[in-house]
């Protein structure tokens, strides 16, 4: 493994609880990892520890086989060869773009000529060739962020850390830039770990995504697995639009199924181990129903009333209410424009059943 975080715990002086508790994760060389989670969950602290700006009280951080932090070892930040791009990426306003990009390059990075060439390569990599003589205020927000990326990559860091790099940009630009940053980092073959609040950004950039909650890493997995096979109830709730409804394991003609207010789900074999079905028959569960698991179907015997709707271009996100008061979310193509208060037919179309025992929090 190229980056290895091994049971790392970090506490700030005088804080009542640790900011990071026993977090382990790995990244292979060239992989892009993303950490998401609510504010205060410990994402930035972990990133700062990898950079060498905080130090764990226990656990180890290894990069390319070298121990950066571990029992009796504490490598200084400037010796780690790790690049950082922060939320407030602060270019130097009085320096031209090429001077900004070349700012971190010293003699150890080659001759003057080689350093000039490196700046040109970085300009080309981030798609800003020709703008080297401009000043930051002459560039758009997105272009400035790409300069910040080029500046961090110029000294050829072993690892790049990005802390909410797009948060000062508007939403549309953020989406576009997230995809572009992924392309640039992949092209440069760089290993990177990014922190964000935004799950669309996380999915757009990450090969692996981790969800942090109250100082712990709840799951570190491919985006698809996070969405379809969330390891904890928190992850299930945090990723995607979804609602938990009551469910119970039942026997349906000898086959175990999950009963829900919208009928039985039969494809539960993958969960039986987790739910200990043999002993749990009849115990209450909460079943996750995501907005894309609930399909609008006029022929369905299950009806639900529309209580809210939000237009999202290609589709509506309807909040629906069943007769017993249970609310659901459904993503419906936007040519099905129904009025609030109207009842529509719905049925389940669930590929991966996700359920947790009711007692789990
Ligand atoms: N310098 C500090 N001194 C004391 N406590 C701190 C310090 N920095 C962060 N904390 C605390 O550590 C915990 C984790 O904070 P951290 O900034 O790592 O979370 P985060 O997930 O990055 O949050 P955000 O998304 O809001 O940036 C929080 O409880 C925070 O209040």
TrEMBL record:
Q: What keywords would UniProt list here?
A: ATP-binding, Cell inner membrane, Cell membrane, Ion transport, Iron, Iron transport, Membrane, Nucleotide-binding, Translocase, Transport
**SMART domains reported for this sequence:** AAA
Protein name listed in UniProt: ABC transporter ATP-binding protein
The answer to keyword Calcium applying to this record is no
Query: Could you tell me one molecular function GO term of this UniProt entry?
Result: ATP binding
Q: Which residues form the ABC transporter domain?
A: 3-239
InterPro entries per record: AAA+_ATPase, ABC_SmlMolc_Importer, ABC_transporter-like_ATP-bd, ABC_transporter-like_CS, ABC_transpr_FbpC, Mo/tungstate-bd_C_term_dom, P-loop_NTPase, Transp-assoc_OB_typ2
Keyword Translocase attributed = yes
CDD domains for this protein: ABC_Carb_Solutes_like (cd03259)
Name the species this protein comes from: Herbaspirillum rhizosphaerae
Show the Pfam families listed in the entry: ABC_tran, TOBE_2
Top-level taxon of origin: Bacteria
């Amino acid at each position: 493994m190229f980056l290895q975080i091994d049971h790392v715990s970090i506490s700030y002086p005088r804080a009542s609880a640790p900011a990071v508790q026993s977090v382990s994760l790995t990244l292979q060389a060239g992989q892009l990892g993303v950490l998401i989670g609510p504010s205060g969950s410990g994402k930035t602290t972990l990133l700062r520890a990898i950079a060498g700006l905080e130090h764990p009280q226990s656990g180890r951080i290894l990069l390319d086989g070298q121990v950066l932090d571990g029992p009796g070892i504490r490598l200084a930040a400037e010796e780690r060869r790790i690049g950082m791009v922060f939320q407030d990426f602060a270019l130097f306003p009085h320096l031209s773009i090429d001077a900004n990009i070349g700012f971190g390059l010293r003699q150890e990075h080659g001759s003057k000529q080689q350093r000039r060439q490196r700046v040109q390569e970085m300009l080309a990599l981030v798609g800003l060739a020709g703008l080297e003589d401009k000043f930051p205020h002459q560039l758009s927000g997105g272009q400035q962020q790409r300069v910040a990326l080029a500046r961090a990559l110029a000294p050829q860091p072993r690892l790049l850390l990005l802390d909410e790099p797009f948060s000062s940009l508007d939403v549309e630009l953020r989406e576009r830039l997230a995809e572009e940053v992924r392309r640039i980092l992949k092209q440069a073959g760089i290993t990177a770990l990014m922190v964000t609040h935004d799950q669309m950004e996380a999915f757009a950039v990450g090969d692996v995504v981790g969800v942090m909650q109250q100082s712990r890493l709840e799951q570190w997995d491919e985006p698809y697995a996070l969405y379809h096979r969330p390891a904890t109830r928190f992850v299930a709730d945090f990723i995607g639009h979804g609602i938990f409804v009551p469910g119970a394991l039942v026997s349906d003609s000898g086959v175990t199924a999950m009963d829900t207010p919208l009928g039985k789900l039969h494809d539960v074999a993958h969960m039986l181990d987790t739910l200990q079905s043999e002993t749990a028959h009849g115990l209450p569960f909460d079943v996750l129903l995501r907005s894309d698991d609930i399909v609008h179907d006029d022929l369905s015997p299950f009806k639900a009333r529309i209580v809210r709707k939000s237009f999202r271009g290609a589709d509506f996100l309807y909040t629906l209410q069943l007769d017993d008061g249970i609310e659901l979310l459904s993503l419906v193509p936007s040519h099905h424009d129904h009025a609030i208060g109207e009842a529509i037919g719905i049925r389940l179309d669930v590929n991966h059943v996700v359920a947790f025992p009711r007692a789990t929090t």
